[in-house]
Amino acid sequence: SRSSAASDVYKRQIHTRALMLPTSNFRDDQIWTFFDGEQTIRARMADKDFLRIIDNGVFRLNADDILIVNLHVKTVQTPAGLVSDYEVIRVLDHRKPGKHIPIPGV
Prior knowledge:
Structural class: mainly beta
Largest sheet: 6 strands, mixed
Strand order of the largest sheet: 1-5-6-4-3-2
Strand content: over 45%
Number of helices: 1
């Protein structure tokens, strides 16, 4: 039988998003902190190829850098209300601040 504490998934979507690294201390193991233009979000970094490039020092990420990503968003109903869970599926591009960035869908 289903527990009453189980959460109901309301929505699963994958978006292409531009996410900014708000500080140089953006990484806590696999959970990364981003700013999406409206709010600060914490997302699991699931792109193993991108992690390998960063961990091998191929290039360095800095505060205000922007990553264009495929972001999986799962919204669930919990006893406390709606909660969204974020996961970066794939990093598509890395941009330095100050350059024009076309954002899909805008």
